[in-house]
Amino acid sequence: MRVVSNVTGGEATAEQLTSPGYWVRHVREAVRFADGIAHLADQGVTRFVELGPDAALTPMAADCLTSAHDTLCVPVLRRDRDEERTLIAAVSQAHAHGAQVDWNAFFEGRGAHRVALPTYPFQRRSYWQERPEAQNTTGQADDPAGAAFWEAVEREDVTVLADRLSVTESALGEVVPAMARWRRLHQERAALDNLRYRVVWQPVPAPPAGATALDAPWLVAVAEGQTDTPEVTAILAALAERGASPHVIEAVPGLGRADLSARLATRPAAGILSLLALDDRPEPAHPHLTRGLTATVTLVQALSDTPDAPRLWCATRSAVATSRSAELTAPEQAQLWGLGGGLALDHPDTWGGTVDLPAELAPADLHRLCDVLSGATGEDAVALRTDGMLARRLVRAPLGDRTPVRTRPSHGTALITGGTGGLGAHVARMLAADGIPHLMLLSRQGGAADGARELAAELEAFGTRVTLAACDVTDRAALARVLESVPEDVPLTTVVHAAGAMQRMAPLTEMTQEEFAAVGHAKVTGARHLDALLGDRPLDAFVLFSSGAAVWGSAGQAAYAAANAHLDALAHHRRARGLTATSVAWSSWQGGMVDAELAAVMERIGAPAMDPRRAIGALKQALEHDESHLVVAEFDWSRFVPTYTLARPRPLLDALDDVRRILSAEPGAAGSDAEDLMARLAGLSAAERGRAVLDLVRTRVATLLGYDAASQLDPQRAFEDLGFDSVAAVELRQALTAATGAKLPATLIFDYATPTALADHLHTRLFPDSDDTAVPVLAEVDRFEQLVGALDIEEIRSSRITSRLQTLLDTLTTLQSGETGVAAVQNSLDEASADDVLAFIDQELGLA
After folding, report:
1. Concatenated DSSP letters for 531-573?
2. C-alpha to C-alpha distance for 295 and 612, rounded to whole angstroms
3. Yes or no: is domain 203-396 CATH 3.40.640.10?
4. CB atoms within 10 A of CB 599
């Protein structure tokens, strides 16, 4: 065995190891650990395994190596970690790095046995796209010394740190634990800051004077009896002044989808302005909805049935709060804002946007309204106020090291609707851990709900009293009885409204009015009942669980988005009345809000489900900082932005630096590979170029879809049938842009439905002045004959070229005989014997 000495930094001799003087030097002189590691690296050692009782030397060894990317430093023991698992992990890492492991000895006595492998070779075919490696954002990969230092801090390894800083261990005794706590807190805050966003309203400059004309017919939809109101009259006059030729359509009771569509078809128009939302009287059959909202839903459905439907704009009045102190008097109308976000995704071509009007319309507001309708502002969600036009924006809202302004609720009774479900249970655990004396968990089934008793026992272990109450929050009388039952010794101090189950995802055009109403019934009605029944009662917290669908929309969930927008508005409305309220618009949580299939889709589009622990951490911060409306979501902007902006611009994201960088990145900058490709293509004939471009497209498509070879892909098959979605469309655009250097639109696969059509378009884009003179067919046959002569036997078998040529020959024979398609096959089969039929099947299936 060769031993490296920490006295000399080189290999120790047998004489040194047996000399008393050597060991005296070992005690007295400096430890030359770095020199020893360097010596081993010079000898070609790439794997370092620490056998000590802790991982103190592993980061030091990594720090000593000048090039650590191709070496392994791994400990077999770690403090406060399971010994067996740590050892197995170390052995596995060493094996993966090329070390020889005696697996027979490792598995001895464990019941392991050999299994027979299949006799055919592994195909190694993936049926999914590999997720790209996450980029390192901490900088630790570029700073191994810094990473090793902070790892030692996190382990509170005073010995290593004292050596690193050249101080005594006693000097660090009290400092290191404090540093470790600060480090953990800093990392937690940074992670939470990355989830925090807020909706703000930013001024929009006025468009040029000549760019806002409305020289075309416009339709104006109004509720029954509101045509002659001052607001409608003023708006009609402003539209006429801009040359819009407005025509009023009145939504009378009983006017259904089909009748309204027929009426719209007789009135071609450049656009529709809906003032239906101004009728905020409750819908008789569904009081949590307004008449204006249900009439708008009917209008949207009728437009979907109308050929060449114009763009739809919806107006509300005092339905959004443009600042924390701004007055919001019509929270019921806010549902139109959530509805609009969903429609912008489901109907990007025909949705115009949403405009919030002030309580009193001034002439300047009317002019600004016409500016928005003209499209000259480029905005699709604006509020008109005395200080100008304000556009809705999503911005980051980091807290950094700001000090909380209050403590979290920890006394009295906390009532949680949906308290035994996934989200409510997480909140209950948070409050119990904070020491809340009494929890009232409401659900439809109360103690009979799945897991309710077990959850109560878990919470009671914190010393919290738990009451499981069966209550439908849409039943005002039942909810009132629950509120009256709160014990006097622990009065109600905290309310969390987390009730409201997700409904099926469906476009608005496929829903009945009853289905639309059912989606938000529990959310909206429960929140309104709680607000009304509690009145002006002082509370520590009144928390509403909203959804990001109300902020940026969600495909197929316009009704759900509308309901959650009402909750956001209710929070602002309570604040304006001087009451506490916090509405959090969440993206999805892991384990509860979405199933595995939907979670995979969301991760692919760049909006992965959040870890519930991090989400609860964000909720704690929102309560400690007394926030009224917060957006908590996890985004991978590099994946989300190209997909989200695929069909139309999304001004909501314009204030985010991450988004601006992605959108401003020039996709047409050609690198050396693109230049080489273009040079190679330029030397080919038009027909050869066409085939080469088609091969390029097929190869990129096959790679995205996980095909083993491009030859397996039918170039005439539509992208939709191949399984492409909006994410794949963006990825294909990026791949072809990188390959060719051409600036291509993200809508490629929607404009050119098949790989062949896309290749033809790309060929024309790259070589617009190409000579498309066709090469004589016999010359092509000669070229193909030369190509076939160069094939080896394996290529012939793997490509199934024999069966394909046989099929082509059959096609030519059929064409020569004058018979085509099914008729030719039918005639052949009618005259065929059994042997002929079997031979035909073999040839068609490529078995011959």
Report:
1. HHHHTT---SEEEEEEETHHHH--TT-HHHHHHHHHHHHHHHH
2. 38
3. no
4. 17
pLDDT at res. 55:
76
Q: In this structure, how many other beta carbons lie within 10 angstroms of the beta carbon of residue 227?
A: 15
Cα 39 to Cα 769: distance, rounded to the nearest angstrom = 64
pLDDT at 168: 81
Q: What is the pTM of this model?
A: 0.70
Taking domain 413-634, whether its CATH number is 3.40.50.720 is answered by yes
Return the residue matching tokens 């018979």: 819
Alpha carbons within 13 angstroms on the beta-carbon side of residue 337 total 32
Tokens of 551: 């902020």
Query: For residues 368, 372, 375 and 379, what is the CA-based torsion angle, rounded to 10 degrees?
Result: 120
Compute the distance between CA of residue 494 and CA of residue 408 in angstroms, rounded to an integer.
Answer: 10
Cα–Cα distance, 302 to 535 (Å, whole number)? 40
Residue with tokens 């953990």: 184
Measured CA to CA, the distance from residue 257 to residue 263 in angstroms comes to: 10
Residue whose structure tokens are 């009609």: 236
CATH number given to 672-766: 1.10.1200.10
> From start to end of 599-745, where are the E strands?
629-632
Question: Which of these, 302, 310, 493, lies nearest to 416 by C-alpha position?
Answer: 493
- The tally of CA atoms less than 13 A away on the side-chain side of residue 646 is 25
Q: What are phi and psi of 619, to 5 degrees?
A: -65, -40
Encoding tokens for residue 38? 């360097």
794: left (phi over 0), alpha (psi -120 to 50) or beta: alpha
Residue appearing with tokens 């005439």? 716
**Mean pLDDT for back-to-back runs of 10 residues, the chain (848 residues):** 86 87 87 86 86 79 67 82 85 86 86 77 57 46 74 81 81 82 86 94 85 85 92 94 91 86 90 95 94 95 92 96 83 95 92 95 93 92 93 94 87 94 91 95 90 93 94 95 95 93 75 92 95 94 95 92 95 93 93 69 86 93 94 93 88 94 64 74 81 86 78 82 77 81 77 87 82 52 65 66 74 63 51 54 48
Residue 452 phi, psi dihedral angles, 5° rounding: -65, -45
For the chain, domain boundaries: 14-111+139-193, 203-396, 413-634, 672-766, 777-844
DSSP string, 152-212: HHHTT-HHHHHHHHTS-HHHHTTHHHHHHHHHHHHHHHHHHHTTEEEEEEEE-PPPPGGG-
Give every CB contact of residue 622 below 8 A, 6+ residues apart in sequence: 582, 584, 630, 632
Nearest to 531 by CA among 279, 338, 356, 332: 332
Q: What is the DSSP string of 344-386?
A: HHH-TTTEEEEEEEPSS--HHHHHHHHHHHHTTT--SEEEEET
- Tell me how far apart the alpha carbons of residues 63 and 56 are, in angstroms, rounded to a whole number: 12
- Backbone phi, psi, residue 399, to 5°: -95, -25
pLDDT at 818: 58
46 CB burial (10 A radius; 0-12, 13-18, 19+): middle
The first and second tokens of residue 812, run together, are 């030519």
Q: Beta partners for 470?
A: 443
User: Taking the mean position of all CA atoms in its chain, how far away is CA 188?
Assistant: 21
Q: Do domains 203-396 and 413-634 have the same CATH topology?
A: yes
Q: What is the DSSP string of 495-526?
A: EEE----------GGG--HHHHHHHHIIIIIH
